[in-house]
Q: What sequence folds into this?
């Protein structure tokens, strides 16, 4: 998995230079992945469903093969495990099968998001262009039987390309912040061409294309530790240049792929991100739990940054456990969710979490720490205490013996952020 763009000197704020440096490093990942895929034949059978697919030879998988090609199945299962392990918790990762991606069992990331919430996902286009334009251009026609290795290389290419083009969102966010007024005018006028002109930097693109060509020519050379026998009557210079012209991949191809596919897709994503940059965030409730057809419909209708909230399970909640103070502090949102009369005070939020974890029809108002300790609890809603509310708890340290304790200077700050932090409503994952 490629690393994420690092902020300048760890400042937390991404700069255009950080992003360009990161896109530059991704060039290596993409070029090496293309070289690896070019090593195998086109192997069209891994891209077919049903007749003529890899599955045909397997009785166990013939039903599956009607629905998915070998590559689609490989990619879907790869994403499933990566999703569980938190890959798609990162805002610079976008799945190819968003509707089938399970939530991670890791706790949500506590760091603030850099992007405006959005659901921009160009992976259907990435997949289409990869299969119909990239693979036929880099692989020799035919079938060499290396289905697993080819699909494996495809997944590395696809995920790297997807990451590259979706970085258009981060690039657009930085450009927006740098020229807020100019972008705001164009966004309000829905001036797509104007946005495209403003965000385009031709000099950066030209340099990138020259660099990609040079990298592909350098990394793609066949390098042998055994000198090739020189043809009779040839000079030493002839032999050296003959060896240097043997490439694993035509160096023109990565450059063309960048010029015709990757840069245009990145810029389309930049424009689409900007067009929704000023929209108000709204929450759309759908019949949950996640995975219903209703989620599919909501994703189809609302694809511009709305927060989709699974709502069926709220109806099935018979009890909301928490500490009495927390129940009071969260009253406003509990009332909105019709849960006010289901409150059951217990000794602590941790006890509430424990009880919710044991009862599929119970929810609890809990801290992030409790969520980490009960990975089978699913978050229904963050920030239950309401926007802007700051609840503080005072901790007293008491001792039988009079002693002078020296605290770590950061302790007060840590305690403050712990106790003023958001409270989440969580339900047992088994809640129907
Ligand atoms: C990504 C950027 O935005 C645009 C897209 C580029 C690309 O896809 O490589 C390069 C320059 C810009 O025209 C950027 O400015 O770096």
A:
């Amino acid at each position: 998995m490629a690393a994420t763009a690092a902020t300048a000197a760890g400042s937390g704020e991404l700069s255009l230079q950080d992003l360009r440096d990161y896109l530059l490093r991704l060039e290596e990942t993409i070029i090496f992945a293309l070289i690896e895929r070019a090593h195998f034949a086109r192997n069209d059978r891994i891209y077919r469903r049903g007749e003529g697919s890899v599955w045909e030879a397997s009785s166990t998988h013939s039903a599956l093969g009607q629905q998915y090609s070998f590559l689609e199945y490989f990619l879907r299962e790869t994403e499933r495990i990566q999703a569980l392990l938190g890959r798609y918790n990162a805002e610079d990762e976008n799945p190819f099968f968003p509707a089938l991606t399970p939530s991670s069992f890791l706790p949500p990331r506590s760091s603030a998001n850099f992007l405006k919430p959005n659901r921009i996902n160009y992976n259907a286009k990435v997949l289409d262009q990869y299969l119909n334009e990239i693979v036929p251009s880099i692989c020799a026609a035919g079938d060499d039987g290396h289905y697993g290795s080819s699909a494996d290389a495809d997944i590395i290419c696809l995920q790297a390309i997807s990451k590259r083009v979706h970085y258009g969102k981060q690039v657009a966010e930085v450009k927006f912040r740098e020229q807020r007024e100019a972008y705001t005018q164009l966004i309000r006028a829905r001036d797509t061409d104007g946005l495209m002109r403003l965000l385009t930097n031709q000099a950066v693109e030209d340099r990138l294309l020259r660099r990609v060509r040079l990298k592909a020519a350098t990394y793609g050379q066949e390098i042998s530790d055994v000198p090739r026998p020189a043809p009779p009557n040839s000079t030493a210079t002839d032999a050296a240049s003959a060896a240097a012209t043997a490439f694993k991949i035509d160096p023109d191809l990565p450059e063309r792929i960048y010029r015709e596919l990757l840069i245009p897709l990145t810029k389309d994503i930049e424009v689409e991100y900007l067009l929704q940059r000023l929209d108000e965030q709204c929450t759309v409730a759908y019949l949950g739990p996640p995975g219903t057809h209703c989620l599919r419909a909501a994703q189809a209708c609302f694809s511009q940054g709305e927060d989709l909230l699974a709502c069926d399970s709220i109806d099935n909640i018979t009890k909301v456990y928490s500490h009495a103070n927390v129940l009071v502090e969260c009253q406003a949102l509990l009332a909105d969710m019709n849960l006010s009369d289901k409150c059951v005070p217990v000794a602590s939020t941790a006890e509430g979490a424990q009880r919710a974890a044991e009862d599929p029809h119970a929810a609890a108002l809990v801290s992030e720490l409790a969520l980490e300790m009960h990975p089978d609890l699913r978050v229904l809603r963050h920030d239950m205490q309401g926007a802007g509310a700051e609840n503080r708890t005072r901790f007293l340290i008491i001792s039988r013996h009079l002693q002078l304790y020296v605290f770590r200077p950061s302790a007060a700050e840590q305690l403050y952020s712990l106790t003023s932090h958001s409270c989440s409503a969580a339900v047992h994952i088994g809640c129907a």
